[in-house]
Amino acid sequence: MPANGVVDRVRKKLILGGVALLVVVAALIAVAVVPSGGDDDDASGDDAAPETLAAGDADALAADLSSGKPARVAGSLVLPEGVRVDPEAAAALSSFQSIEIDQGTFVSTEAESGTVEASVVSAEGESETWDLLLQQSDGEWKIIASTASGGP
After folding, report:
1. What distance in Å separates the CA atoms of residue 133 and residue 79, rounded to the nearest whole number?
2. More confident call, 43 vs 71
3. Does the pLDDT of residue 131 top 60, yes or no?
4. Does some domain include residue 48?
5. In a domain? residue 2
């Protein structure tokens, strides 16, 4: 029977692997769901005003990610039908000391999509910056992909 330290390291790798898998799944989804630039029958075309990310929307996304509840985490992501967030991945996200989405860094990339930076501090106190790709879905901003871009 392995020592508790080994079990803890394996458990941590599984949880961090779940978070990494969540990021990979979101990145793979991004390839399939990135908007194509609009419908042909959309009369507004490129004249539509660029979307913005309100501070309240950024705070709501961060709260959902750090909630520890798989359904809330899933609600902040664009996922294929039937895909669920693993409870251990949700718990790993909730163990972060902080997840803060900086609404001031939002850049609209095209209608109903954009990028924004998030500053995160892990449970161990390690700081990192994530670049989040967002898409509006039913009038709400959701994360379709994320990448770690380095420290603050």
Report:
1. 13
2. 71
3. yes
4. no
5. no
Query: What is residue 147's DSSP assignment?
Result: E
DSSP string covering 11-77, please? HHHHHHHHHHHHHHHHHHHHHHHS--S--TT-TTGGGSPPP---HHHHHHHHHHHTS--HHHHHHTB
Is residue 43 predicted with pLDDT exceeding 90? no
Whole-number average pLDDT of the chain: 77
Q: Domain with 94 in it: what CATH number?
A: 3.10.450
CA–CA separation, 117 and 131 (whole Å): 5
Cα of 129 vs its chain's centroid, Å: 12
Partners of 131 in beta bridges: 117, 147
> Which of 77, 50, 49 is CA-nearest to residue 61?
77
47 part of a folded domain: no
In a domain, 39, yes or no: no
Question: How many domains does the chain fold into?
Answer: 1
Task: Give me the pLDDT at residue 105, please.
Answer: 96
Domain that holds residue 108: 8-33+53-150
